[in-house]
Amino acid sequence: QVQLVESGGGLVQPGGSLRLSCAVSGSISSINAAGWYRQTPGKQRELVAYKTSGGTTNYPDSVKGRFTISIDNAKNTVYLQMNSLKPEDTAVYYCNARILVDNIYYNNWGQGTQVTVSS
């Protein structure tokens, strides 16, 4: 069974950095694409970073130039490097991945990790 487990969240001061990790467990062939999303209470989940195995990326203007997503297929892990963090980046961050297992693609979500940006 494939599972995604996020880590790396926590409390950081404005202007600081965090790196989130999303480890994919199970017998997989590859991570075909991955995205990071965030959600605050009462709001819809929003995309903050997306990347395909071919290198295509997508970032909303709110994080462009500050956030970077990467996929390490050797470690079955997806990362989100977040720099110059702002209080409005505070949210629960979720990892999503399109995973190839025995020639079948699956779409999985992690359980989320809290990021709080505050002085």
Average of the residue pLDDT scores: 96
The fraction of residues in strands falls at over 45%
Largest sheet: 7 strands, mixed
SSE pattern, N- to C-terminal: EEEEEEEEEEE
Please give the alpha-carbon distance between the first and last residues: 40 Å
Please give the count of helices: 0
What would you report as the Rg, rounded to the nearest angstrom?
A: 14 Å
Describe the protein's architecture and organization.
- This protein has 119 residues and is mainly β.
- The chain is 0% helix and 58% strand.
- The protein is built from no helices and 11 strands.
- Strands 2, 4, 5, 6, 9, 10 and 11 form a 7-stranded mixed sheet that branches.
- Strand 4 and strand 5 form a beta hairpin.
- It is globular.
- The N and C termini lie far apart (40 Å).
- The mean pLDDT is 96.
Salient structural properties:
119 residues, 7-stranded mixed beta sheet, mainly beta
